[in-house]
Amino acid sequence: MNEHARWQMERRLEAAAGALEENGFAVWVCRDRREAAERIVAEAEGARTVGFGGSVSLVELGLPDRMASLGKECLIHGAPGLSLDERVEIMRRQLTCDLFLCGANAVTLDGRIVNVDATGNRVGALAFGPRKVRVVAGANKVVGSVDEALARVRAWAAPPNARRLGFRTPCAETGRCVDCRSPDRICRIVQVLERRPRLTDLGVILVAEPLGL
Predict the structure, then answer these.
(1) CA-CA distance, 167 to 180, in Å (whole number)?
(2) CATH number for 157
(3) Which of 31, 90, 94, 159 has the most beta carbons within 10 angstroms of its beta carbon?
(4) Rg for the chain (alpha carbons), in Å?
(5) How sure is the predictor about 83, in pLDDT bands with cuts at 50, 70 and 90?
(6) Is 77 in contact with 120 (CB distance < 8 Å)?
(7) Starting at the edge strand that comes first in sequence, how are the strands of the sheet with 26-30 ordered?
């Protein structure tokens, strides 16, 4: 990345961080993936159970393996070989875990966190339940408004995620959203966190690199 593009990215991260703090969220701005991973490891001190909200960003940071190596019980509903009942039980346990980790589909410059879910386990845990919630967002997730956030989901997040998860949606074939009525549709629940949920210890780790989808 050239110096001018990096300058702009850092200024946007600073603006988003300031707005998030004004809206009651704890915020850490990390220079790179390594610093972000170390920040999250520090946040996990004392946690016995760590829930993962199905985030590509967390996988790119190596956090599932890192947490397991620290002796944490990792609640990963997308682990291979699980039955539907087993996945659902893990999702329910994520709602009361010590630390819940997830990504964000977008973070706005006015300090809102936007996510679109199929099942609702991620957005449910974001709002209330776990003792601590930490959201990771790369610089590619910072957008100007909620409208831009939803457009980003449709254009850049939902199609590759549907394909990654093996869902039979039109976007998984064409790479573009058609606002489908497919039984496998993953865009079912929209959550906009305008302020930190009143009883939730929710913090955001912003990373000065692209992360996830």
Answers:
(1) 13
(2) 3.40.50.10420
(3) 94
(4) 16
(5) very high
(6) no
(7) 26-30, 202-207, 132-138, 99-103, 49-52, 73-76
Place of tokens 């940071």: 61
* Residue at token pair 């920040």: 39
Residue 212 inside a domain? The answer is: no
Residue 126's H or E segment, with its range, is helix 121-127
Q: Is residue 119 part of a domain?
A: yes
C-alpha span between 60 and 53 (Å, rounded): 14
Whole domain around residue 133: which residue ranges?
3-207
Report yes or no on 213 lying in a domain: no
Over residues 32-71, the pLDDT tens digits come to 999 999 999 999 999 999 999 999 999 999 999 999 999 9
Comparing CA positions, the residue from 192, 140, 185 lying closest to residue 159 is: 185
The mean pLDDT value for 86-95 works out to 98
State the Cα–Cα distance between residues 159 and 155, nearest whole angstrom: 7
- Residue 19 corresponds to which tokens in the numbers above? 């707005």
Domains: count for the chain: 1
